[in-house]
Amino acid sequence: MEVTGRVIVLTGAAHGIGAAMARRFAADGAAGVVVSDLDLAAAEEVAAGIVAAGGTAIARHADATSKQDLKRLVADARAEFGPVDLFCSNAGAAFGTGVHAADEQWARSWAINVMQHVHAAQVALPAMLGRGEGYLLITASGAGLLGTPGDAPYSVTKHAAVGLAEWLAITYRPRGVRVSALCPLGVRTALLEPGIAAGHPAALAIAAAAPLLEPDDVAASVVRGLASEEFLILPHESVRDTYARKAQAPDEWIDRTIIETTARKG
Length: 266
Prior knowledge:
The protein has a 7-stranded parallel β-sheet with strand order 3-2-1-4-5-6-7, with helices on both faces. The protein is of the alpha/beta class. Strand 2, helix 2 (40-52) and strand 3 form a beta-alpha-beta unit. The model has no long low-confidence stretch (mean pLDDT 93). The radius of gyration is 18 Å and the shape is globular. Helices cover 56% and strands 12% of the residues. The chain has helices at 16-27, 40-52, 67-80, 103-131, 143-146, 152-172, 193-198, 201-209, 215-228, 238-248, 250-264; strands at residues 7-10, 32-37, 57-61, 86-89, 134-139, 177-182, 232-233. It has 11 helices and 7 strands.
């Protein structure tokens, strides 16, 4: 899929990767971009910047965990620009906690990192299937392929997001709807940088796995991945080989991860 002339909806698009994708899609000629976020003021700032640069965008307040809010985004996009071609469910959450995380943290992680993508598919698929074309982009994480020592809810739910994306691809690719899972490692965003500064084990593990990328780098990878319709969009190319090694020797992978995690703890 080329984004030129396409109508695109994004969640979690006021900051970080989402904002970078919104700007890049608009710069590449998207017909209309819906920038949605809980932080409406920041979403409006992103949309205003796109318009000032000659693009077409609107901002909307939306809770990515609310099916009704996502349904409204699709309706607003259609009313402003036409049918949605690409739905990017991009919002995410991390708490940096282990298996004994509070029930509320597990529930919130599941709602944002998994059910958001379920609801996005539920609201976007009917029209896409009716037209015989469309695209779902699920922002998962390299953690969904390789794990994240130090953050159980994040690691588990990102694995689930990749699993959902795979199921959707198998089920709907024959009917014209493409699906990609975006799986970066460390990116310089407010989701990761505070954890690195605080020395949190999960954040340090991600930072040690590969060089940190800028959000604009990830957006560029997304555009290339969509153009070639790759299932796994991997801004950090090293993830591909590491994921293959993990699959070939899972016990070795676990032992090695334990050693590296212990070494980082000092």
